[in-house]
Amino acid sequence: MAKFFGCFFFVLFVLSVASVLPSSDAADSPPPCVEVKPLGSDECNIRGCMTWCYRAYDGHGHCQKDGDFNYCVCIYNC
Predict the structure, then answer these.
(1) Residue 61: which region, alpha, beta or left (left: phi > 0; alpha: psi -120 to 50)?
(2) What number of H helices and E strands is found in the chain?
(3) pLDDT tens digit string along 55-67?
(4) What are phi and psi of 17, to 5 degrees?
(5) pLDDT at residue 65, as a whole number
(6) Coil, strand, or helix at residue 65?
(7) Alpha-carbon distance 67 to 42, whole Å?
(8) Quick check: 24 pLDDT over 60?
(9) How large is the average pLDDT for residues 65-76?
(10) Is 24 within 8 Å of 62 (Cβ atoms)?
């Protein structure tokens, strides 16, 4: 019985260590690319920003404000 519990806890230990280590896919993947569409002082239409980003780059768009200027920022895989 002690042997069974020893094996059981060893397997749990191995699985916990494996889950903490970074995967090789994450290390090999390139950083995401960013495309910025300046909108000037116009309000950012989030729906339009998301649609533009998805259609143009197959990415995820969001609005960003910097002072009086608005931007549509698109993050996508290169």
Answers:
(1) beta
(2) 3, 3
(3) 999 999 999 988 8
(4) -65, -40
(5) 87
(6) strand
(7) 12
(8) no
(9) 90
(10) no
14 pLDDT band, cuts 50/70/90, is: low
Q: Whole-angstrom Cα distance, residue 31 to residue 45?
A: 27
Considering just the CA atoms, what is the radius of gyration of the chain in Å? 23
Residue 7: partners with Cβ closer than 8 Å, 6 or more residues away:
none
Identify whether the C-beta of residue 5 lies closer than 8 Å to the C-beta of residue 13.
no
Phi/psi region, residue 23 (left: phi>0; alpha: psi -120 to 50; beta: rest), is beta
Give the 3-state secondary structure percentages of the chain, helix then strand then coil, rounded to 5: 45, 30, 25
Q: Please choose, from the candidates 38, 34, 76, the residue with its C-alpha nearest in 3D space to the C-alpha of residue 58.
A: 76
Q: Angle at the Cα of 76 (from 73 to 78), degrees rounded to 5? A: 130
